[in-house]
Design a protein that fits this description.
Layout (H helix, E strand, L loop, with lengths): L11 H10 L2 E8 L2 E8 L1 E4 L5 E8 L12 E14 L11 E16 L1 H16 L13 H4 L5 E16 L6 H13 L3 H13 L1
Antiparallel strand pairs: 1-2, 1-5, 3-4, 4-7, 5-6, 6-7
Helix pairs in contact: 4-5
Length: 203
């Protein structure tokens, strides 16, 4: 994606944390001359060689998987908080804009099966069940329930490139910058308040 230099985030640890926190992404690939996209959790992990990968699965009824081929590049898009920025918050005339955080991950996709797929499902469920009062576990599911795994297609994406856009008014002077934060906090809207928090981290 196009990212002006002052909006690029090259802090890999910060981006990793973002991907873990905002793991519900969009997987995009192409087949038969048409783009396909599916909204799914895509978990950051490492493979047996210690290389970072994204792990996920989609329904076998979803035809997108039929275009998964080894060594085919795919795109995964992750969206964080975002908010409208009114130009009335500036100390001079300008146009309104939008602040946001977004990460694009490019990589090679490969279908996974058997124990590798089952292990990925265990990790996924354990991650999101850890705060449940009565957490469920794939390891405790009956054979009958686990038969549903036959209805999904698992995959891993070996990451080749990560593009990170943190558009947080970095191009504004200190007066405008701090005024934007104050105005965002007044909105009492979750996304706007979260953007204000992110802005406080960098200035």
């Amino acid at each position: 994606m196009y990212i002006p230099n002052y909006y690029k985030n090259e802090n890999i640890e910060e981006v990793r944390s973002f991907l873990i926190k905002n793991s519900f992404g969009i997987l995009i690939n192409q087949g038969n001359g048409r783009l396909s996209g599916t909204h799914i959790p895509l978990e950051l992990d490492t493979d047996e060689e210690g290389k970072e990968v994204l792990i996920g699965h989609i329904s076998k009824a979803n035809p997108q998987w039929k275009n998964f081929k080894d060594n085919e590049e795919v795109l995964a898009i992750f969206q964080g908080s975002h908010s409208y920025i009114s130009s009335s918050w500036y100390n001079h005339e300008d146009v309104p804009t939008w602040n946001y955080i977004a990460v694009h991950v490019y990589g090679v996709i490969k279908i996974i099966e058997g124990d590798e797929l089952l292990d990925s499902l265990k990790k996924l469920v354990d991650k999101y069940e850890k705060n449940s009062e009565n957490p469920v576990s794939v390891g405790n599911m009956s054979e009958k329930t686990l038969k549903q795994i036959k209805g999904i297609v698992g995959f891993k994406i070996s990451i080749n490139e990560i593009q990170s856009a943190y558009k947080l008014s970095q191009n504004k002077d200190d007066s405008d910058y701090h005024n934007i934060i104050e105005e965002l906090e007044k909105t009492e809207e979750y996304n706007s308040i979260d953007i204000a928090k992110e802005m406080k981290k960098i200035k």
